[in-house]
């Protein structure tokens, strides 16, 4: 995609992402001097996250002062509170990788208009790789048009995922999921930056990706890049409310449909007869990692409600579904939008 043909708002997102990337790259040269704080066990934030986020927001608001902001570290402290335009920002996805010098992390910026993501940028500063998409205009890696893979057999597929890492996460549920998926695929990978994982699906490097417990800023930009590359994204049952359910599944259409069949029993919407499938999946009880009723749910639910469900040719579960009640998980980190209405 030529720079001259980019949407003006996408151009601003690129400018903001590169500014953040410069901050991250400079800091990566002296990791030992980094100040690292812990938001919750195994959930870190550095002064680099905060400086990169400030640079992104400054760049965006200089161009669009009337737009809203939803950012991982500062929430909705800055920007307009009731704009139809909301920028969804993760300044450093993969902070744990970054502070250990493991070069898999990125900047993720999405712009939603009335609940639908229309512009997206994911920037990998270690490789100078810029993934971008505008709704209806395709997805690109630098100047190369992206398409999801053409593989049709799950047995030939490479699938990305994320492991549980916070205290209270349901490790038994993940073990059951791995046990179900691994025999059916060529390999599973877990680099540790969900925004990049989704871009790898769009680029055909992965054939599919699944994870639970993600926040809007982890997924928003990558979701548009996947769909603009011809892929599908939804929850484990193939529906479009993945942001609300905190579970995401993405892939090329054929592989996506096959993964839905494998992962639907592990969705937060389960059938009455599946009580004994993953551990702790009794009707009326919810695994700790998936039951977090965080304040950010209002934001997530609004975005999900405005989304168009992906077309999936996999059958829906035949048995009657029961939606589990949520209960707050004490150890989960609170989303930054607490106490505020959904911006979109």
What multimeric state do the chains show? single chain
Shape label:
globular
How much is the average pLDDT?
A: 80
Could you name the ranges where pLDDT drops below 50 across 5 or more consecutive residues?
A: 270-343
Distance between the termini: 29 Å
Keywords for this structure?
D-Maltodextrin-Binding Protein, domain 2, 5-stranded mixed sheet, 2 domains, disordered C terminus, Inositol-1-monophosphatase, alpha+beta, single chain, 22% strand, 344 residues, magnesium, 7-stranded mixed sheet, 9 helices, Fructose-1,6-Bisphosphatase, Chain A, domain 1
How would you describe the overall organization of this protein?
With 344 residues, the protein is of the alpha+beta class. It folds into two domains: 7-137, Fructose-1,6-Bisphosphatase, subunit A, domain 1 (Fructose-1,6-Bisphosphatase, Chain A, domain 1), CATH 3.30.540.10; 154-323, 3-Layer(aba) Sandwich (D-Maltodextrin-Binding Protein, domain 2). The protein contains nine helices and 16 strands. It has helices at 8-28, 47-63, 95-99, 171-181, 194-202, 216-228, 242-245, 253-263, 297-305; strands at residues 36-40, 43-46, 68-71, 85-93, 106-113, 116-124, 129-134, 139-141, 144-145, 158-161, 187-189, 208-212, 232-234, 247-251, 269-271, 321-323. Helix 5 packs parallel to helix 6 (216-228). The longest helix has 21 residues, at 8-28. The protein starts with 7 loop residues before the first helix and ends in a 21-residue tail after the last strand. Residues 270-343 have low confidence and may be disordered.
